[in-house]
Design brief:
CATH superfamily: Vaccinia Virus protein VP39
Shape: globular
Keywords: Methyltransferase, Transferase
CATH class: Alpha Beta
Distance between the termini: 32 Å
Number of domains: 1
Number of helices: 8
GO molecular function, one term: methyltransferase activity
Radius of gyration: 17 Å
Helix content: 25-40%
Order of helices and strands: HHHEHEHHEEHEHEE
Protein name: SAM-dependent methyltransferase
Structural class: alpha/beta
Largest sheet: 7 strands, mixed
InterPro entries: SAM-dependent_MTases_sf (IPR029063)
Length: 234
């Protein structure tokens, strides 16, 4: 383990623990609950999302993994509460960068974020084995252990910090642990610009036997963040 990885694991302040709801996930990834029944699903990285908690309550088989899970659940919950409030303060100033159709206003957004955090924290407390600590780009799972892998608000969003090689290495690792397909959302960076190496990455995946398509989804909150990458294994 590198010193950078170790310090990231240990420094809770560097982790932003905010998540989306189960319903947001279905819309972000253009899925229905029926699409996921009978599948083994991995949410990577899952953060404070309630997809794993509500999914399992609904009879689905979902596992979550994230670097945040190296920390105690109670510490993460407290951090999440602070992070939601901090994010809402900033949201008031940056409202123009967002599309206010999915959420009515900042208060409605806060309600959704707090709901996701509460469901996630309660499930971590009661079903901790579902929440696996990982440090990308490596995962502690078997080859083809999951049927479907969902990856939200991580890879392309932080392209100013995560370079093209990191994306390639990480996606290859996501493919390794997945039997059928991966869905990645969104395809833009924090400024709302399409990931600059996306076409290159799609060509690389196609050359390696994957079927790749960009799919518009029924979810847009950050302006222009309304499509996902669907990667099917050959």
């Amino acid at each position: 383990m590198s010193r950078v990885e170790q310090s990231t694991k240990l420094d809770l302040e560097r982790i932003v623990f905010i998540g989306r709801t189960f319903e947001e996930y279905l819309d972000m990834f253009s899925l229905s609950k029926e699409d996921l029944e009978g599948k083994k699903i991995l949410d990577c990285p899952a953060g404070a999302c309630s997809f794993t908690a509500i999914g399992n309550q609904s009879g689905l088989d979902v596992t979550a993994c994230d670097i945040a899970y190296y920390h105690r659940g109670e510490d993460l919950k407290n951090k999440g509460l602070q992070d939601v409030e901090h994010a809402m303060e900033n949201m008031e100033k940056a409202k123009g960068n967002y599309v206010w159709d999915y959420f009515k206003n900042v208060e409605d957004l806060r309600t959704h974020r707090l709901s996701a955090l509460k469901d996630c924290a309660n499930d971590m407390r009661d079903n901790g084995e579902r929440y696996v600590p990982v440090t990308l780009p490596s995962l502690p799972f078997e080859d083809a252990e999951f049927d479907i892998l969902l990856s939200a608000h991580f890879l392309f969003m932080y392209s100013d910090r995560l370079d093209y090689q990191f994306h390639i290495t990480t996606i290859n690792e996501l493919l390794r642990v997945t039997k059928e397909e991966i869905r990645i959302f969104p395809l833009v960076d924090l400024e709302g610009k399409r990931y600059e190496h996306l076409d290159k990455l799609i060509s690389y995946l196609a050359d390696n036997g994957c079927t790749v398509e960009e799919v518009q989804v029924p979810y847009e909150f950050q302006a222009k963040a309304n499509s996902m990458l669907k990667i099917k294994k050959g």
